[in-house]
Amino acid sequence: MSSIKKLVGQTAIYGLPTIVGRLLNYFLVPLYTSPGKFKPSEYGVLSELYAWVTFMIILLPLGMETAFFKFINEKEDKDKVFRNSFITVAVFSLSFYILVFFGSQSIANWLGYPNHVEFVILMAGIVSIDAVTALPMAKLRSDSKAKKFATIHFTAIIVNIVLNLLIIGFLFNPKEPMEAVLLILLANLLASAVKVIGTHQDFIGVKWTFDKVLAKEMLRYSLPLVVAGFAGMINETLDRVMMKPLLMSAGETRKHALGQVGIYSAVYKLAMIVTIFLQAYRYAAEPFFFSHAKNENRNVLYVKIMNYFIAAVCIIFMGVSMNIDIFKHFIRSEVYWVGLGVVPILLIANVFLGIYINQSIWYKLSGQTRFGAYIAIGGATITVLINLIFIPIYGFWASAWATLIVYALQMIASYLLGQKYYPINYNLRKFALYFGVALFFFLVTHFVDLDPTKMTIRKFFFHNSLILLYVAMVWRIEKGKIKA
After folding, report:
1. CA angle, 61 as apex, 46 and 121 as ends, to 5°?
2. 63: alpha, beta or left, given left = phi > 0 and alpha = psi -120 to 50?
């Protein structure tokens, strides 16, 4: 089997539970946003809380997943590498949870939910459990135990989805929507606990002996990745955290501000189809790239993978943006549809993000992870500035454009630095062709709108014929080249 076909197969296996889980989560959005369920301001509360969860999920694992994949291929004692990374994350996560538990009231006051301390405690529990189980799950990927990894991951997702269906379908009280928020957080906590059960042998079997020298070496490598990841999450999520206070400072009511957060978060889900693919791809790509780091033809392989990757994310961009009149019905209440205009902007932003993520292998392989931190910090700074200045004026439109601008700049910065420190001769002409044609076809359908109000049969065939034409073009160009 060729290397690229193996990567595609691993992406499918490791990504299947993620893709299925995210798609199932898509079907929760119609429930959350149905008439009689969460209003935009109430959905905004849930979105804001989960925005904070995503920040902590980046921080708590301390970048040890990536460090584990690097050091497991360099050190003879594989168990010691796992043991040190696992113990480091476990101790840090436990300490974090204890601190949050005893300071929960102060944190709840600061977040603006003084009567819901339980939100803070549950969020801390979710991120702590996810962080502790990250290393055993990474070990399964390293050991090529794809079926076990997929089973555990998929089971956790199913538990979360089923509990959410019960909460929204049978337990939801429109007069007490915060009770539903509490139950949804509790469902997430129980789903996270599934990973503990699935990987319990690693918890029980781990020897609590610690190599300080190795741990310091791994942390020197991983901590810049934490900074990069945290700053990267600022680019992806901080807008939903900043939107409420910034709009309120501009004179809007708390309800309206939370409503804007809710609308933006709901339509953002439509743009996340690209990120679903990215997450599935990353599960397989990271260990794959490290395992081929010593291959003398690795750069040729990386270039070909990038070509196929760009074509794939552009097809996803076209599929969603050119069929938005279909996808919008995942958001049942039309009150949310005022935000649909930002979806193509966010889709393009996520295309740039995917290319940047694919490029980022240069500083991980070379050990120069500090550059990942520099790029991410620069992007985070620009994100904060654009949102601070423009959210009070343009609302969530400012957040969407900030996301696109920052991801584009990060992609360019990573490419330029990579060519200097770890050159990979990417095919820029092919990138320009694939992205340019995809954008051109989208603009054609945007300006030649056969029916602005709905998706007619004629409009459907016109839009999707262009997508098929694009696929045919890529196939024609790449035919016979997947033999690396």
Report:
1. 40
2. left
What is the secondary structure of 375-427 as a DSSP string?
Answer: HHHHHHHHHHHHHHHHHHHHTHHHHHHHHHHHHHHHHHHHHHHHHHHS-----
DSSP secondary structure letters along 180-248: HHHHHHHHHHHHHHHHHHHTHHHHHH------HHHHHHHHHHHHHHHHHHHHHHHHHHHHHHHHHHHHH
Burial class for 243, CB neighbours closer than 10 Å (0-12, 13-18, 19+): buried
d(CA 400, CA 302): 30
Residue among 328, 271, 265, 270 at smallest CA distance from 39: 265
Tokens of 18: 């993620």
* b (16+ CB within 10 A) / e for 106-124: ebbeebebeebbbbbbbbb
Mean per-residue pLDDT, 80-92: 88
The residue written with tokens 């200097």 in the block is 420
Rounded to two decimals, the pTM is: 0.73
Q: Which residues of 407-439 are buried (b: 16+ CB within 10 A; e: fewer)?
A: bbbbbebbbebbeeebebebeeebbebbbebbb
Rounded to whole angstroms, the Cα distance separating 361 from 342 reads 30
pLDDT tens-digit series, residues 259-296: 998 899 888 888 877 777 776 676 666 666 776 666 66
Q: Name the one residue in this structure whose structure tokens are 């193996």.
A: 6
Rounded CA-CA distance 390/19 in Å is 34
By C-alpha distance, which of 56, 364, 448 is closest to 233? 56
d(CA 343, CA 347) in angstroms, rounded, equals 6
- Residue 404 CA to residue 234 CA, distance in Å, equals 13
